[in-house]
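Quick one:
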Amino acid sequence: MSGIPITLRSCSKTFDDGTVALQPLDLSIAAGETIVLLGPSGCGKTTTLRIVAGLEEPDAGGQVWFDGTDVTPVPIEKRNVGMVFQSYALFPNMTVEGNVEYGLRVRGMPAGERDARVREMLAMMRIEPLARRRIDQLSGGQRQRVALARAIAPRPRVLLLDEPLTALDAKLREDLRVEIDRLLRSLAITTVYVTHDQAEAMALGDRIAVMAHGRIAQIGTPQDIYFAPADAFVADFIGTMNRVRGEVIDGTLRFGAGWLPLADGHAGEDAMFRPEDLKLVDQGSAQFRGRVVSSFFLGDHTRLVIDVGGESMLIARVQQRERLHAGDLVHCAVEPGAVMALRPVAN
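Output:
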C-alpha cells in the first residue's frame, strides 16, 4: 500500500443557507504524508475533509486532484478512499470479521483472497480474538480498531479520519494514538486527519494545518507550529502561552518591577512565551518576581500559576521536586530567545 499526492485548488464551500464554511483554499499533500487539519468547531476542517472524500462538492472553480488526475466530479465510491468516523459507522448486525470483509465483498474480491485480507487486517489491528464477536459486544477502543481495519482493508489510495478518538476516554485515546501512528508509518498511506485536539495533531501529523474562520492560519511541521506560530491565535491554540504587556525601553519590555529582553525588530508592547520557558531562578539572576497563586503537581511536572503584578497571571511548567505553595515568593527568568512578538489574529 502506498500513498498518492493530493492537491486542492481554490476549494471553497458555501452552503445553501448562505453559510460560508470554507474560504478559497489551496493545499498540497505529499504522497504518504499525514496532514492534520486542526482547529476549533466551525473552522472548516471537516468541510475540507469531506471535499477531499467527495462527500461535498467545492464551489464553482474549486478542484481536487489525486495523483495528477482531476477527481472533482468523481463520487466518493469511485475515489478509492478509506474513511474512519468518530461514530465508527459499523454495521451492528455483523461480526467484526463481517464488517472488515464488507468492503472487499462489495468490490468483488474472490473469497479466498478476501479471507486472507481480513485475517491480515485483524492481525494488523491486534483484534484477531474478536473476529466472531458482534459490534455491540465491543468496547469503544475495540470498535475503533475494527473501523480502522475496515477502512484500510480495500487498500485505499487515501485514508481520511474525522475526529476518530473524540468519543474515547483520555487513557484509551493516548493508547490508540500510538497504534494509529504505528499503522500510518507502516502503511505509508496519504492521510488527512481532522481533530480539535492539539496533542493528537502534534503526535500524528507530519504537518499540521491550523484552521480558523474557514482559512488555514498556518501550515507546517509540529515544531514549526509550536516554536514559530504565525499569530496569536495559532500560539494560543497550540499549547499554552503567557502574555506580558508593558512599555518598550531600550530593547526591553518593562512591566512593574520586571523586564524581559526583546528580539530585534520587536515593535509591540506585549510579549508571549511558553510556560516551559519560564524558569525559577535565584534572586540575582531574576528578571522579575512573583507570588505563587496555585500549584498543581501533575506527575512529570508541576504547573504553577504566578502573580507577577501584571494584567494576567503567568503559567510555569517546572520540574523541581520540592513542593511550592500558594503565597510562596519565586524569582523568575525567561529562556533567552523564547520571547515572541506575534501579530494579532486576522479575522
